[in-house]
Amino acid sequence: MSGGSGERRSRPDRVYAPDFLTELFRNPLDPGYTDAAARRAAGGSSGPGWPARTVSLVVLVVLGFLFAVAYRQTVAEEPGRSQARAGLVTQIREREQQSDRLTERSDELRAEVSRLRAAALTGSAAARLRDLEAGTGVGRVRGDGVVVRLADAPNNPDAVTGSSGPSRVIYSDLQRVANALWGAGAEAVAINGQRLTATSTIRSAGDAILVDFRPVTGPYEVSAIGSGELRGRFDGSGAAALMREVAAKTGISFGVRRADDLTLPAAAEPRLRYARPAVSPSPSVSQDRSAEPSGSRTAPSPSGGGR
What we know:
By secondary structure, the protein is an alpha+beta fold. The protein has helices spanning 2-10, 20-26, 31-41, 52-120, 124-136, 171-183, 230-235, 238-250, 283-289; strands at residues 141-151, 188-191, 194-195, 202-205, 208-211, 214-216, 220-225, 253-264.
């Protein structure tokens, strides 16, 4: 028995290693971090790195230097930007003045051509030419009709959201009104003095509304000349009902009134690309047809109006 117990004593005892996860949760930090924390608590050095306060000071100095350099560069470039902006503004004003002078000259030449044409044509030929000019929009017209007025909503802040952006009249509103007036039997239509023809466009460029590439600003007045039934037909149209509903919901202004003795200016000369010969060509008729664009003139409408 003694020999057996001696054999048992000579055998090495088994050593069980601790579980890895248990040891990890028991000592989550590396021993090096623990030693560094102990040295810092004892007042020793924390290592070869710089103190945190020194690093923060260096970072602030570098940021301040970068801001100073950016500011000086911006200030140095500002005169050049201002000069370039001023140059562009000057060019725009010069082009506007040049465009106004050319427009005035064009009106003078058009009036001179009209006088010479009236002197050359007499009787039915002159009357037919005036009718064609009125129908195609290249002649000034005068008569009774209606005026449809649209304006942006007042800039009142919303009580709930605090937003102060007003509801605006958009180009499709003017398209809808113009087409409804044509459909109600209008013989001539103009928006803020810009005469509409069969090739007119109503578009938007950003916040601006363009009529034949010319900007118009609110309040917008769509004037139309037609018979005494024009207002009643327009008021009963779907476009007028829709605009009244939009005005009630968004706050924009929409109103229709009858106007007596309206005068609508002539539109610019159209740039025709195609022509159609008359069925029975004759000198007078051929001259009249040259001023009429292809297609029927009984229902002229702006091409950009969605008609």
